[in-house]
Write a structure and sequence with these properties.
About 35% of the residues are buried. The protein contains eleven helices and two strands; from the N terminus they run αααααααββαααα. It starts with 11 loop residues before the first helix and ends in a 30-residue tail after the last helix. By secondary structure, the protein is an all-alpha fold. Helix 3 packs antiparallel against helix 10 and helix 6 packs parallel to helix 9. A two-stranded antiparallel ribbon has the order 1-2.
Length: about 220
């Protein structure tokens, strides 16, 4: 990919919300996986208040320069990269800080709901995950609905890097991405005394890993 479109690579301290200046590192950038580069670029758009570019990403039927740029992070998986960029922009409409999210799409859908229940306890969330995991082709419309519901519930999105990689293997039977999402959605809640579950952030991290902090 052309270096002229690469965002600055930030120090760990700045990624955690520090005030130090970003330090460009071409080597560190090139060592990242394409999905990691996409997430770094997308979060930089929110961090740098590039609201015009984020709005461009939310125009699904228009081939804007920003949308095309998202696909260039991996031309072999262009559709996945462009569509995840769209989902990211949908979630971050009006946000001032980026959220890296956590967990799979299945565990994220488990967070959808309200006072009456979340995930399996919310009929809408259950119907949504059923539609998603039963789709032979990537169910972009249902994924958009899931991301919009997470935003409206003020819940963390899925890990964007993982989402890109999962969707890139959607038709790989050995990867069984849809089955994995279903298992994550229906995973029983931890019992008293159990260790922290695999989809729950460990101590020192909030539920929404925005800049490894909160979204809003």
């Amino acid at each position: 990919m052309s270096t002229e479109t690469e965002p600055e690579v930030m120090t760990e301290a700045e990624a955690e919300g520090g005030s130090g200046a970003a330090i460009p590192s071409q080597h560190a950038w090139e060592e990242k996986e394409p999905s990691e580069r996409l997430t770094a670029w997308l979060t930089s758009l929110v961090r740098n208040r590039e609201y015009g570019q984020l709005a461009d990403l939310r125009r699904p039927r228009v081939r804007t320069n920003t949308r095309i740029r998202a696909g260039w992070f991996d031309p072999d998986r262009r559709e996945v990269f462009e569509e995840v960029a769209f989902l990211f922009a949908v979630y971050h409409r009006g946000a001032s800080r980026p959220s890296y999210g956590f967990g799979s799409l299945g565990s994220a859908t488990r967070r959808i709901g309200g006072g009456a229940g979340r995930g399996p306890g919310d009929p809408g969330a259950s119907r949504l995950i059923d539609r998603i995991v039963s789709s032979r082709r990537i169910p972009w419309r249902h994924l958009q609905h899931a991301v919009a519901r997470l935003r409206s519930c003020d819940q963390a999105p899925p890990d964007w890097t993982r989402l890109v990689d999962d969707l890139g293997r959607w038709n790989d039977r050995r990867a069984a991405v849809a089955d994995g999402w279903a298992v994550d959605f229906h995973e029983p809640p931890p019992r008293p005394g159990d260790s922290v579950g695999k989809n729950v952030p460990t101590a020192g991290k909030t539920a929404d890993t925005t800049e490894k902090g909160t979204t809003k």
